[in-house]
Specification:
The strands form two sheets. A seven-stranded mixed sheet has the order 6-7-8-9-10-5-11, with helices on both faces. By secondary structure, it is of the alpha+beta class. The protein folds into two domains: 10-127, 3-Layer(aba) Sandwich (Aminopeptidase); 144-314 and 349-359, Aminopeptidase (3-Layer(aba) Sandwich). The longest helix is centred in the N-terminal third of the chain and has 18 residues, at 86-103. The relative contact order is 0.16. The chain has helices spanning 10-22, 32-39, 86-103, 153-158, 162-173, 184-201, 208-220, 264-278, 300-307, 326-338; strands at 44-52, 55-68, 71-77, 109-116, 143-148, 177-180, 224-231, 234-244, 247-255, 283-285, 312-315, 320-323.
Length: 372
């Protein structure tokens, strides 16, 4: 196996992206286009890729974020991506860690490395890592719900909870329609619905340039779209969907309070599933649910909505930190504790709180997703 290479050229990143999309459990937050997007929000990045006889066997796209002058941390979302064989995986993992060590410099103190791999169990070779010292804004959901699109549409409906199927029928009887619109108007309408949602919940919305950059990159790579549920000529709910490998992922969304009885979000998601299935995707990822045994979790009520669609729950290993410098890590933790607004890599904040109106009707006041 060769040493890690730094994929600075377009060809190397293209090879990495092809490897990811062919790897069943890899996530889009390891892709080069996600790194390009995150560069617009203050992250730097580099790659550590391992090859064997010219074939990629694993690696990581590593982001670096400077959280204070002369202080930074490294962050591997959806990764690292390792071989299935655990002995080889351990070798690849150690090589990735060594590559990151080589990147550290005297100009900035690296506080820690954070990883969020798509593993459902912790490999035996992991050591020295710990749970984050504080609950902070740089995390992605570790529990999610995925619907298997390999079945027929009838079977997909049949595995839903009765109320989910019923509400899809209600939306159809009301004449709700689903459209796809990535035009300037579509982006403006999405932002409007999103802004209304977060304003209603009392949180700070992401600015238009955030979504402009994200949609621009998704469209240029043919990796995403925006969908709306319309009723009587008004767009009531919206969803931003990411396409990657076998999965289509509901990443951001929102809804209005008008015409709640039309149950527009239920049909919105079912039609997205149908379109994703037609495109060849095998799973629809609802991107984050609360554990069922944690009724006080901020996502608990939102997760009730998502679970009406049925699906398979995927529980990934927790977010893990490897501390490089204890003083810088303590400073990082203090800064996160002092933050008044959570708006990092998990941070469609409006999608993490229970809508008050959900207690008044079966449809939630927003369609919960989660975004970086």
């Amino acid at each position: 196996m060769s040493a890690p290479c730094l994929p600075s050229t377009e060809d190397r990143w293209t090879a990495w992206d092809r490897f990811l999309e062919a790897t069943p459990d890899a996530g889009f937050m390891q892709s080069s286009w996600w790194a390009d997007f995150r560069a617009t929000t203050g992250y730097e990045h580099f790659g550590a890729i391992l090859k064997h006889r010219n074939d990629i066997v694993g690696g990581a796209m590593v982001m670096k974020y400077s959280f204070a002058p002369q202080e930074c941390f490294y962050y591997i979302t959806d990764g690292p991506v390792l071989p299935v064989d655990e002995s080889l995986a351990g070798e690849v993992f150690e090589a990735i860690l060594e590559s990151i060590e080589e990147r550290k410099n005297e100009e900035e103190t690296a506080s820690h490395l954070r990883i969020e791999p798509r593993w459902e169990r912790l490999p035996s070779f992991i050591s020295g890592f710990r749970a984050p010292a504080v609950a902070d804004r740089f995390v992605e959901p570790r529990n999610t719900l995925c619907l298997d699109l390999r079945h027929s549409e009838a079977a997909i409906l049949a595995q839903m909870k009765p109320k989910g199927r019923y509400n899809i029928g209600v939306a159809r009887r009301h004449g709700v329609t689903i459209i796809e619109d990535t035009s300037d108007r579509g982006l403006a309408d999405f932002q409007s619905i999103y802004d209304a949602t977060v304003t209603r919940q009392g949180f700070e919305a992401k600015p238009p340039d955030y979504f402009e950059a994200l949609i621009s990159i998704l469209l240029s790579r043919q990796r995403g779209s925006i969908f709306f549920a319309e009723y009587q000529g008004k767009r009531l709910a919206a969803a931003l969907v990411v396409y990657f490998g076998r999965r289509a992922t509901y990443f951001f969304g929102g809804s209005l309070v008008e015409h709640r009885s039309a149950m527009a979000p239920y049909l919105l998601h079912f039609e997205i599933m149908r379109r994703a299935k037609a495109m060849g995707h095998e799973w629809y990822d609802l991107w984050g649910v609360a554990p069922e045994n944690q009724p006080d979790d901020p996502w608990a009520d939102i997760s009730v909505f998502k679970r009406k669609f049925g699906g398979v729950e995927v529980n990934l290993v927790p977010t893990l930190d490897y501390v490089y410098d204890t003083r810088a890590y303590a400073h990082y933790g203090a800064m996160q504790t002092d933050s008044a607004i959570t708006e990092g890599d998990q941070d469609d904040v409006a999608q993490r709180v229970q809508p008050e109106a959900q207690r008044q009707a079966d449809e939630p006041a927003l369609v919960p997703g989660l975004g970086g």
